[in-house]
């Protein structure tokens, strides 16, 4: 039996892409992931993730990665309710990965608060029958999803490193990071707008932009 795991990285960040990754393995080989020490990427150091990512690619039958840039996320989010639209976008991307990998069963980390609804969103987009197991924290429960989380996180880390070479150190890219907040405000002060690496539809980014525009209006 062919088993796939699918997970994301960077869902809540205001800078950088949302990365979706899938890993496909024969069911009998999943024990190799456990032997390697594969676990949820958030529980591993960056260096350990990089080492495991190489090993996962080596033993996996196939893997696939989709990177959703900020402009694509903004376009979807601005068209309606943020979480609802973002969930559908993730479901579409996971469906594409599952279609590529063609597993008999796929374990996915559910982004929707309703696990079954998320599962149905994926199933309705697939052109073939496949069993979907949609659960919260699947990356902590199933090694195959942990493997996907590691691939997704390392791919996102690579992109963040590239962006830092271009823009300087903006922290981790999440609104809770003071470096990220400082970067957003500095962009507006110096250029009056955000670069393409920023999700302009995010609440933090919108608030700073509105505050900046309000100040300019008052000065006119």
Task: List the keywords.
220 residues, alpha/beta, Arc Repressor Mutant, subunit A, 2 domains, five-stranded mixed β-sheet, 54% helix, 15% strand, globular
Mind explaining what this structure looks like?
With 220 residues, the chain is α/β, with parallel strands linked by helices. It folds into two domains: 2-163, Nucleotidyltransferase, domain 5, CATH 3.30.420.10; 166-214, Arc Repressor Mutant, subunit A. Helices cover 54% and strands 15% of the residues. The chain has nine helices and five strands; from the N terminus they run ββααβααβαβαααα. It has helices spanning 30-36, 46-59, 70-77, 82-101, 115-123, 138-141, 143-167, 178-191, 203-219, and strands spanning 2-9, 18-26, 62-68, 105-109, 131-135. Strand 4, helix 5 (115-123) and strand 5 (131-135) form a beta-alpha-beta unit. Helix 2 crosses helix 7 (143-167), helix 4 packs across helix 5 and helix 8 packs parallel to helix 9 (203-219). The protein is globular and about 60 Å long.
Could you give the count of β-strands?
5
Q: Identify the CATH architecture of the largest domain.
A: 2-Layer Sandwich
CATH superfamily of the largest domain: Ribonuclease H-like superfamily/Ribonuclease H
Portion of residues in helices? 40-55%
End-to-end span in angstroms? Answer: 67 Å
Give the class-level CATH name of the largest domain. Answer: Alpha Beta
Q: Approximately how much beta-strand content do the residues carry? A: 15-25%
Mean pLDDT: 93
What gyration radius follows from the Cα positions, in whole Å?
19 Å
| Total discrete domains | 2
* Unreliable spans: none
Shape: globular
What's the CATH topology name of the largest domain?
A: Nucleotidyltransferase, domain 5
């Amino acid at each position: 039996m062919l088993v796939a795991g699918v997970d994301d990285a960077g869902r809540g960040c205001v800078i950088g892409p949302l990365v979706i990754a899938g890993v496909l393995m024969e069911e009998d080989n999943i024990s190799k992931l456990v032997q390697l020490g594969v676990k949820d990427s958030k529980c591993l150091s960056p260096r350990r993730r990089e080492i495991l990512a190489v090993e996962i690619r080596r033993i996996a039958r196939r893997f696939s990665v989709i990177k959703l840039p900020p402009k694509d996320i903004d376009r979807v989010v601005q068209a309606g309710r943020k979480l609802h639209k973002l969930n559908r976008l993730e479901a579409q991307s996971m469906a594409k990965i599952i279609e590529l990998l063609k597993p008999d069963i796929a374990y996915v980390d559910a982004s929707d608060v309703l696990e079954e609804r998320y599962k149905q969103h994926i199933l309705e987009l697939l052109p073939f029958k496949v069993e979907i197991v949609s659960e919260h924290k699947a990356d902590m429960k199933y090694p195959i999803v942990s493997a996907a989380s590691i691939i997704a996180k390392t791919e996102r880390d690579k992109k963040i490193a590239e962006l830092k070479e271009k823009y300087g150190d903006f922290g981790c890219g999440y609104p809770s990071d003071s470096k990220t907040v400082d970067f957003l405000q500095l962009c507006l002060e110096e250029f009056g707008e955000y670069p393409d690496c920023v999700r302009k539809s995010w609440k933090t980014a919108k608030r700073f932009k509105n505050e900046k525009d309000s100040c300019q209006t008052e000065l006119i």
